[in-house]
Amino acid sequence: MGLCLQLRMLLWKNFLLRKRQKFRLVVELLWPLFLFLILMWVRTKGLRENISECHFTPKALPSVGQVPFIQSFLCSFNNTCHATEKEAQIDGSNLQASRADSLVRELSTMFGQRLVDQDLDAAESVVADLNRLASLVQGITSRQVQVKGVLSVPELVNSTSWIKEEIFRQNISLDENAVDSLITAKFAPQNFSLGHLLLLQENRSLVLCDTQLMTSVIQVQSAVVDQLCRLSAVELDALANIMRESLTAAGTYQQLVQYVESNLDQSLSWSDWNSMRNLSVQVWQDFTSLQNYTKAMSDLAVMSSQYTYLADEMVANNVSRLETGDCHVQLLPVR
Q: Which residues are within 8 A (CB) of 168 and not within 5 positions of it... i.e. 6 or more apart?
């Protein structure tokens, strides 16, 4: 069968189908016309909106400087659409002359003048001491390190004779031998667990009457522990107040230093710690005296007062939210 005959037979078949199904023929003719009429109607309703060109603020590159580079991102984070390219331009000279960039340059100059090689060596020693202390704490918490050492009561207090006189003056039920044992005792805090401290707050008698525990903690005879166990709550409070008032800051600090160093098996670089403390004080004083820092603090104070006023106005006018434009702030009342 030739090509012409096949085409003629196909057209004859389609003609017979359309002739027998007149409704289908009408739909196939009108449906495309209906769709085009809808498109023409939409175009005549004026729904089209002409949008002009949109220019975004360009971001500064790191070559301008790290602070201006960060500022350009923060100050144009919302990507505001500008009508002209000129409005979207960013002034790099303003970024370089900003207060933040000037403050960073002043800090760089200040640290360059303050820090010397000796300060860097001291900082390395302090960091090494902190690492050793962190390792000690980790070993204690994981029970891999056995804490040792004691604190001497005579070295902690200001005067043992004053403690003795106060105990007798307040008629605390302790004999002279027990008092002498307490003021010359050695205190081993590692034998006192956290559970004992919690129990001491709830029921002191259970802890103070534990002869084995108390003799290991304060290292006194069991007879002294028995007398402590028989003390009333008022007497225990009076004894605790006497010991607390007799403690000295210098003695406590020295004893704690010796206690820590005995567990580290080496002394800490306290001279370097003191050097870093003095350097920190000097750096802070220099920082607070910088001109840009004082101006920034003044600006923050002004901004704080303005925000406080704005918050008061929002409350007074029953405003729930703010809408900000490019150059104004619009207060929206609660609906």
A: 179
